[in-house]
Amino acid sequence: xxxxxxxxxxxxxxxxxxxxxxxxxxxxxxxxxxxxxxxxxxxxxxxxxxxxxxxxxxxxxxxxxxxxxxxxxxxxxxxxxxxxxxxxxxxxxxxxxxxxxxxxxxxxxxxxxxxxxxxxxxxxxxxxxxxxxxxxxxxxxxxxxxxxxxxxxxxxxxxxxxxxxxxxxxxxxxxxxxxxxxxxxxxxxxxxxxxxxxxxxxxxxxxxxxxxxxxxxxxxxxxxxxxxxxxxxxxxxx
Length: 238
Fold this sequence. Notes:
The chain has 7 helices and 11 strands.
C-alpha cells in the first residue's frame, strides 16, 4: 500500500484541490459565495468532450485558482500571495484524453503526445509551450499535485497532464487573467496527423467565480461576468 504524500506547503495546496478535481471531472459547477473557491473556478473552467468511449477534458487553472487552493489549505496570507506570484506568470492547463473500455479500464494519451496536439492563442496570438523552463518551486507544486491526483483518483487521476505556457507581457504583467477581460483559445488535434480534426476550446475572462456576476440594469438578472450585454434585454451590463 503506498504511503501518504508528505504534507509540504505545495502538498497541502494539492490536497485542497482534490474535491474540485472530483467535482469538475463530473461536470459539476458549484456556486461560489464570498472568496473564490477551487471548486467554483475549476467547475467554470471545465471544457469537456465525450465521443463514444473517448473522454477529453481541459481545465484552465488561473492564478486565482492557486490562491484559493492555498487559502483552503490553511496557509498564511504570505503563502497565498506567493501562490499567485508563482502561477500568474503562466497559462496553466490541465487535461486528459482517455479511452474508457466497457470493462472500465482507462487508457490515455501521454504528455508528449498531447503536447504535440495542443496549441493556444491569447488574444489571437499563438503562444509556445514551456518545456523544462519552469520555476523550480512551481514545478515541485505541480509534481505534488500529480502525485496526489494519482493517489486519490486512481486510473483517471493518473491520466491528467499539466501544460504550461508563458503568460507575461514585455512589461511583466499577465496577458490573460481571470479578473480582467480577455480570450484564451485552445485547439486540440484529435489524431496524430496534422490534417486530423481539431477540438476548439475557448475561455473568456473575467470568470464569474472570481469577480462575481454582472447584473442586468433592466431585469436584475445575474449574468456571466464576461458578458457585456444582457441577452434578453440587449442593455449594457454594469
